[in-house]
Amino acid sequence: MRPILTPEQMRRVDAAAVERGIPSLVLMENAARSAAEILERWLEPQRPPVALIVCGSGNNGGDGFALARHLVCRGWSVRVWWTGQRQHMSAETQTNLTALESLGLQPLHIPAGHLPPPPPSVDVVIDALLGIGARPPLREDIRTLVRVLRSLPARRVALDVPTGLNAETGEADPEAFAAELTITMWALKTGLLLNDGWRLCGRIEVASLGVPEAWAAEFAHIAALEWADLQQRFPPRWRISTKFDYGRVGIIAGSAMMAGAAALAANAAIRSGAGLVYLYTAGRIHSAVLPEVIARQLPSTPEGWLDGAALPLLQELLERVDALVIGPGLGVPALPVIEQLLPSIPSTLPVVLDADALRLISPERRVPATWVLTPHVGEFARMTGEERSHVSRQAAWLAQRWARHWGGVLLLKHVPTIITDGQRAYWNLGGNPGMATAGAGDVLSGILGALLARGIPPLEAAAMAAFLHSAAGDWCLRSASAESVTASALLSALPSVFPQTVAP
Q: Which helix (H) or strand (E) holds 223?
């Protein structure tokens, strides 16, 4: 699992390391050594590269000075510019500047507003100007310097965070440094993954500080799952077992006009390991529904929407399932029936509310802790009454606040996908733009229903479902164009991305 920290949490990690006997100078040295190794792996130089490292007078600049020394020792040709005042430097930053000077490399001091001519030839520009504590907008002298760096015909690397990017919110100055590679220290930072962070950071690598990874549990409330986490946490399939051991999923979905949504959700559930899947649908049963799905056509209105006469059948369904998915393809006319059904649902039954069913969630509503709400940004804005643009920029923090307010788990479909119960959160970092296609959310709901039916707690089930869903999308992208990814293709990819969990 990869921890994701806010800048304040990272400062606490640094402080804890010092308190527990790891001096700041050692942390800086470890970071620089690790960053040098990452740089060489990334660049794969055929000859000694020429690097320009531009440092500030804070600890980010200290990282840059230390990195310059390591690169010189590896045979690189290094030029260093620095800005700010020596008397404002921390002891660690001053020590690394002095150590660099002792090697005979004279860093060039740039007074504010006095830029030197750019070097004639540089392979890599490394931004070590401002650290994770800085906030946009940039001062004019720094903005001018960054503009020069961006104009150089060289590869671009940022240390810890690109200058001009808010390391907490991901909002950036219009002229922030744009990196191809960002080497951040010890853990991912929230702002690298939000808003402008994706555009400005490029590839993100994490440099080691020589601090145990186990410390992350003390400081981070956000994490990203990795493949190893699924292998360890996914419930096994026992050699001696039956279909009743792997959960029964009820899916209330579909209408005459949107029968395909119901088919996608039901097929995803059966392909995600559920022992039994019951599809209760209005209008018609789509021909694509897999024969393994137990499909039942419900009483419908003449227009093909769910009719009130279906309510007793839906209440009966509640007694035979271990998890329930409500919403894909239902249509707004079906909502009065669903509203009548909700009070009948036991508070212990895990429920996924998706698509039109989310219209039943308002700012005043409370839901059981076993429920998972799965809106995209537009739906979330409607549910909360927040402006859509505000939701898009503040998604991570609003998701946490509203999940705590409603009482259940929220899976907000955004970049990244935010999964939170209001206290802890998982951010899903996988997926690709090809997944922005009709029916992809229905597949996610089916996967999630299956994992809930297996007894996985709602927060973890939602995180795993988002991970597997995006992994299927990325699998599709490896074999086709993003333009051709479909929800049906995601279904076909599921067998290739689920972990092998057959127990002895």
A: strand 222-224
Q: Which residues of 186-200 are buried (b: 16+ CB within 10 A; e: fewer)?
A: bbbbbbbbbbbbeeb
Tokens of 71: 């690169």
**Distance from C-alpha of 451 to C-alpha of 233, rounded to nearest angstrom:** 11
Mean pLDDT of the residues in the chain: 95
Task: Report the C-alpha gap between 206 and 183 in whole angstroms.
Answer: 6
3-class SS shares of the chain: helix, strand, coil, % to 5: 45, 15, 40
All residue ranges of the chain with pLDDT < 50 are: none
pLDDT reported for residue 273: 95
Whole-structure pTM value: 0.95
Question: What DSSP string runs through 92-143?
Answer: HHHHHHHHHHHTT--PEE--TT-PPPPPS--SEEEEES--TT--SSPPHHHH
Question: Measured at the alpha carbon of residue 205, what is the angle toward residues 203 and 210, in degrees to the nearest 5?
Answer: 170
CA 124 to chain CA centroid, Å, is 29
> CA geometry: angle at 466 spanning 461 and 467, to 5°?
95
Among candidate residues 122, 111, 113, 101, the one with its CA nearest the CA of residue 53? 122
Nearest to 81 by CA among 114, 37, 49: 114
Domain 2-220 fold is Rossmann fold (3.40.50)
CA distance 356 to 442: 11
The pLDDT assigned to 141 comes to 92
The torsion angle over the Cα atoms of residues 161, 165, 166 and 170, rounded to 10 degrees, is -100
pLDDT score at 10: 96
Which sequence spans correspond to the domains of the chain? Answer: 2-220, 227-497
Where are any strands of DSSP class E within 334-387?
351-353, 371-373
Domain 227-497 is in which class?
alpha beta
